[in-house]
């Protein structure tokens, strides 16, 4: 027996330690409301695990709550964005209606003050090549529109009808190279001819060097070409070059009073109405 203990000394010591620990826990267990020792052992082992589980579950619940909040916030943000975009679209439509109403009111005022008024028309097409400054309007011969009738807006002269159809007409803009208008400088009363340049500008020709012109001087129709009635606003002087031009005349550039690339509605007037009165 002694030889066995000496041979397995380490194992024996370990066994004694475990036995002593067990007896000590048994004695201690009697002071804890007579609870069985196995319960204390179970509590000793389970308590850290339970605490870990509680901590982990609490973290998971916290993360889940944050996830639900994030999803809800994202969903609300998306809904708000959609509502904002919808409101923007509705606002753009309302603004478009207001702008159109404004233009139509101006045309109505023009109709009431213009005895040569024939009809109002909407621009439905433009020349896609840009070689010609031409637009198409949705009124034609069936609406009383004829060749050489004048096309205007409240801001001034647009051009003239050069190709009327049954239900639509082609309008030659004042900026086209084939367009000519007899005009008068409102300030000096000197007369000349406005010709299109094929761009968004016009030339004012046949104004002598002796005439004292200023930038922004207004140019109006003179009525001497028997097409454009007198007194319509054509545009204003944007450049003056007294050293340019040919012979006795200045080189003058005109910016039209109407933004021809933006016109949407126009009025058509007939100079012959005034002539027949």
Radius of gyration, taken over Cα atoms and rounded to an integer in Å? 47 Å
Overall, the morphology is: elongated
Secondary-structure element string: HHHEEEEEEEEEEEEH
Tally of separate helices: 4
Largest beta-sheet characterization: 6 strands, antiparallel, barrel
What percent of residues are in strands?
25-35%
Note down, in words, how this protein is organized:
The chain is of the alpha+beta class. It has four helices and twelve strands, in the order H-H-H-E-E-E-E-E-E-E-E-E-E-E-E-H. It has helices at 2-7, 9-29, 37-113, 271-276, and strands at residues 117-126, 134-137, 150-153, 156-164, 169-173, 180-185, 191-196, 202-205, 218-221, 233-241, 251-256, 265-269. It has a six-stranded antiparallel barrel with strand order 1-2-5-4-3-12. Strand 3 and strand 4 form a beta hairpin. The N and C termini lie far apart (150 Å). The model is unreliable at 2-6 (pLDDT under 50).
Structural topology:
Layout: H1 2-7, H2 9-29, H3 37-113, E1 117-126, E2 134-137, E3 150-153, E4 156-164, E5 169-173, E6 180-185, E7 191-196, E8 202-205, E9 218-221, E10 233-241, E11 251-256, E12 265-269, H4 271-276
Antiparallel strand pairs: 1-2, 1-12, 2-5, 3-4, 3-12, 4-5, 6-7, 6-9, 7-8, 8-11, 9-10, 10-11
